[in-house]
Amino acid sequence: MLLAGIDYGSKLAGTTVISLLKDNKVTVLQSEKKKDADLFILDNLPQSLQLIALDAPMSLPGVYRGLKNKSNYFYRESDAILKAMSPMFLGGLTARAMALKEKILSKNIQIIESYPAGLFNLLSQNKPKNIESILDILPGEWQLPEIKNLHQADSLLCLYSAVRFTNGTSQKFGDEEEGVIIL
């Protein structure tokens, strides 16, 4: 099974990272500055990819879609529970993620929303967040390349969310109709 975790950054910043896992071997790819991160993602999705865990909101708060009992204009239930940034504050990144989701789904690849800081907080036992402490909570059998920055480390946390989702050990936060975050 081929899985991916994506730390989604600004379109041209060079901070978008894809981590791919196949047979416990991890490959890490990072976008380049001044090059379109969305095209980078679409160009680097292997045909056999089955699941992506993306670090970006892929839906708006339910109030904008007229969902019952939803009155928060800034946060979805999942964001409020995990203290994640508002999809509304992230604005353009949220819009890009929603569009990217549709393109990925059209390739018959499943996509879930992840939140690396949330997974780290869930598993780290209050350690300070740095590359070493992130690597400590990942599965020991993973064969990792050198991890050079926190964007790469966050993509690994997204990848771990994908693994947890696949093996049935993930936790789901929020309302399915509004949009959930899976850790």
Structure commentary:
- By secondary structure, the protein is an alpha/beta fold.
- Helices cover 34% and strands 20% of the residues.
- It has helices spanning 37-43, 77-82, 87-90, 92-105, 116-123, 131-137, 150-166; strands at 2-7, 17-22, 25-30, 49-55, 110-113, 172-175, 179-182.
- A 5-stranded mixed sheet has the order 3-2-1-4-5.
- The longest helix has 17 residues, at 150-166.
- It is globular.
Helix vs. strand class: alpha/beta
Assign a percent range to the helix content.
25-40%
Q: How are the strands of the largest sheet arranged?
A: 3-2-1-4-5
In total, how many beta strands? 7
Count of discrete alpha- or pi-helical segments spanning 4 or more residues = 7
- Largest sheet composition: 5 strands, mixed
Q: How far apart are the first and last residues' alpha carbons, in Å?
A: 19 Å
Share of residues in strands: 15-25%
Shape: globular
Pick out the low-confidence regions.
Answer: none
H/E element order? EEEHEHHHEHHHEE
Average the pLDDT over all residues and give the rounded result: 97
Radius of gyration: 16 Å
